[in-house]
Write the structure tokens for this entry.
Amino acid sequence: MKQMRSFSRMAVVLIFLFLVCAPQTAFSQAPEVLDVEAVVCRDVVDRKPVGADTNFPDSIGKLYCFSKIIGAKAPTTVSHVWYYGNAEVFRISLSVNSATWRTWSTKTIQPHETDSWHVEILDASENKLEVINFQILKQ
């Protein structure tokens, strides 16, 4: 009888340790992985990018970052973060409402803002999904 109680207590302790010490991933689903197809372009027409490129003139006025998000299992968000050089100049959160979703953001480019730019596309947890590098060329 004494051995039985001892065994029962040990089993309870082992179960408790397993539940407390087991990694969270053992009980949760794998994180959602989103695929992104993205470009910087001159315009978006009928939900399609127009004039995608990596070099634009300083007279461009406005650019678009177009993203096609694939793989969302539930509504979520992505962010477009625009950088001039290494300085963040604009950030916007965009809804993703189906497994395949197209969305875009726009940024006005001043004529003096020449040289290197990039847009980072982040998931809802701020994980970097894609980076698009482009140049504004002095004309």
Remarks:
- The chain is about 15% helix and 50% strand.
